[in-house]
Design brief:
The protein is of the alpha/beta class. It is built from ten helices and eight strands. A six-stranded mixed beta sheet has the order 3-4-5-6-7-8, sandwiched between helices.
Length: about 300
């Protein structure tokens, strides 16, 4: 068994609340996050299909030049949204003009359907160009690193005076109308601009930061957002009476906690040779260590 991470009383209390959102393994309803759809270009699809038989790959995106308009390209993607519990946009996206325009259409449609969004990487570049796409949308989580954070702040005319910590994170979330910002770094600051929904992810983590680790974060947040959705629906005998805003923060914070624990575990095994893909293998262990299963799931 790996060495247990040290936890503050605040961390333990937040984990307790995250645990309330996780559905028990009961027979009466689906647990969510059991199917992952990957929407990409045809050349990428052929490669991605070889990664795992568990991925459902849809080669619906196109790059410049394309004879098909972004609206038409977005149409089959938008048709899928009613079947999803959450949507991650950004990893592997790139900045191609047609791709970015298509994604803008999808974000607008997802917002209309009140679908929770997690935006990272080049989806953040799109937000920098068009912040109105997500401004005021309180079902949206942005996961910028320090550089992306600075560009987002500049795009909305915000001078954080170099503060990318608690105050800066709150200021950017406020400027974007209350979206949830997860500013990745040595610690992860998480805020929707309000004092009561501002917290820090300060788990130990590994001592090597490998490019691509943010994909574990976005996936973890998206999974918790899916579970959050069925928690809010009251699909089982839920605890805590927590609302949409608090549970959005908990999903963001929980994703940070899981990712940092994955990093800690992977670094303990791999050391300097750690790669982002090594974190994937540690997700089940990190989940069990931090959150675990409810007693009724073990029956």
């Amino acid at each position: 068994m790996p060495e247990q991470p040290e936890m503050s009383p605040v961390t333990k209390e937040l984990l307790k609340k995250v645990r309330m959102m996780v559905p028990p393994m009961l027979e009466k309803f689906h647990k969510g996050a059991d199917l992952s759809h990957v929407i990409c270009t045809p050349p990428a699809a052929n490669v991605i299909k070889t990664y795992s038989p568990n991925l459902m790959v849809h080669p619906l995106m196109r790059e410049t030049p394309s004879s098909v308009t972004p609206s038409k390209l977005a149409s089959p993607v938008i048709a899928m949204l009613t079947h999803l519990h959450s949507l991650v946009i950004g990893p592997g996206l790139g900045r191609d003009e047609i791709m970015q325009a298509t994604v803008a259409e999808v974000i607008a449609a997802a917002r209309d359907k009140k679908l929770p969004l997690v935006l990272d990487a080049d989806a953040l570049w799109l937000v920098q160009q068009r912040p109105e796409l997500i401004k005021g949308y309180k079902e949206c989580v942005l996961t910028p690193n320090v550089v992306e954070f600075g560009r987002l702040a500049q795009s909305v005319g915000l001078d954080t005076h170099g503060d990318t910590g608690q105050a800066g994170c709150k200021a950017l979330a406020t400027a974007l109308g209350g979206v949830m910002v997860v500013r990745k770094g040595a610690v992860d600051w998480i805020s929707d601009g309000s004092a009561e929904r501002t917290c820090v992810g300060d788990g130990e983590g590994g001592r090597k930061r490998s490019g691509g680790q943010g994909d574990t974060l976005t996936g973890s947040i998206a999974t918790l957002l899916a579970w959050r959705g069925i928690y809010l629906e009251g699909a089982w005998d839920t605890e805590g009476n927590m609302g949409r805003e608090e549970t959005l923060m908990l999903a963001a914070w929980g994703g940070s906690a899981i990712t940092r624990e994955c990093s800690r575990l992977a670094f303990a095994k791999r050391g300097r040779s750690l790669q982002a893909s090594d974190l994937t293998e540690e997700v089940p262990v990190a989940f069990e260590t931090l959150i675990g299963e409810k007693e009724e799931s073990k029956l």
